[in-house]
């Protein structure tokens, strides 16, 4: 009987394995935020039905960061994203399953009009993001004579390229004209 137990790992290693890319099957997303910033992880399929779900995690994170910046501003905690300290990883890209991690740190500012309360990104895999188009799309959300603040291009070894963008929300920070 003991010899069968010794062979079990070998037998199991010979069985075929299949990874399924079904939404809510093996895909998980977690995001946590506090006064220091937001961090999160997407683990799952790169693509589902032709849709780039791994990169969509950047959309989810951007939305959450923008919500937190507004929340803190409304509590009198004036913050903005520390572009230089943003961290991105996309381990496993190209294998069918990816672990996409983002760390978006905040820094405190003393003046309300030095804070930013909106956050977004533009990115793509293996080629430069369409920054000019994104800037034009966001031009109508700015306060008069205000500008977008854009990070340097951030790139993972697997080829994800992102620009991160922040600005004063014209509803939340209307007094900053």
Explain what the structure shows:
- The protein has 177 residues and is an alpha+beta fold.
- The protein has one domain.
- It is 24% helix and 34% strand.
- It is built from three helices and eleven strands.
- It has helices at residues 2-14, 53-74, 131-138, and strands at residues 28-34, 37-45, 47-48, 51-52, 79-81, 87-91, 97-108, 118-125, 149-150, 154-155, 160-167.
- Strands 1, 2, 5, 6 and 7 form a five-stranded antiparallel sheet that branches. Strands 8, 9, 10 and 11 form a four-stranded antiparallel sheet that branches. Strands 3-4 form a two-stranded antiparallel sheet.
- The longest helix has 22 residues, at 53-74.
- Mean pLDDT is 85; it is low at 1-24.
Low-confidence segments, given as residue ranges, are 1-24
**Roughly what is the average pLDDT, rounded to an integer?**
85
The backbone outline, from C-alpha atoms, is: globular
Rg, Å, rounded: 21 Å
Number of domains: 1
Classify the helix fraction into a percent range: 10-25%
Number of helices: 3
The largest pleated sheet is described as:
5 strands, antiparallel
Structural class: alpha+beta
Strand content: 25-35%
* Cα end-to-end separation: 80 Å
Order of H and E elements = HEEEEHEEEEHEEE
Number of strands: 11
Signal peptide: 1-21
Keywords: Signal
């Amino acid at each position: 009987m003991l010899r069968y137990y010794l062979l079990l790992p070998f037998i199991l290693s010979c069985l075929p394995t299949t990874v399924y890319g079904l939404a809510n099957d093996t895909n998980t997303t977690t995001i946590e935020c506090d006064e220091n910033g937001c961090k999160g992880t997407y683990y799952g399929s790169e693509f589902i039905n032709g849709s780039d779900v791994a990169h969509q995690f950047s959309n989810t994170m951007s939305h959450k960061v923008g919500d937190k910046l507004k929340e803190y501003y409304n509590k009198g905690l004036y913050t903005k994203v520390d572009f230089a300290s943003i961290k991105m990883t996309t381990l496993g890209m190209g294998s069918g399953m990816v672990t996409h991690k983002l760390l978006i740190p905040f820094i405190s500012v003393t003046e309300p009009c030095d804070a930013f309360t909106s956050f977004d990104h533009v990115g793509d895999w293996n080629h430069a993001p369409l920054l000019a188009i994104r800037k034009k799309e966001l031009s109508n959300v700015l306060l008069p004579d205000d500008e977008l603040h854009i990070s340097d291009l951030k790139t993972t070894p697997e080829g994800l390229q992102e620009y991160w963008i922040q600005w004063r929300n014209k509803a939340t920070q209307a007094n900053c004209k």
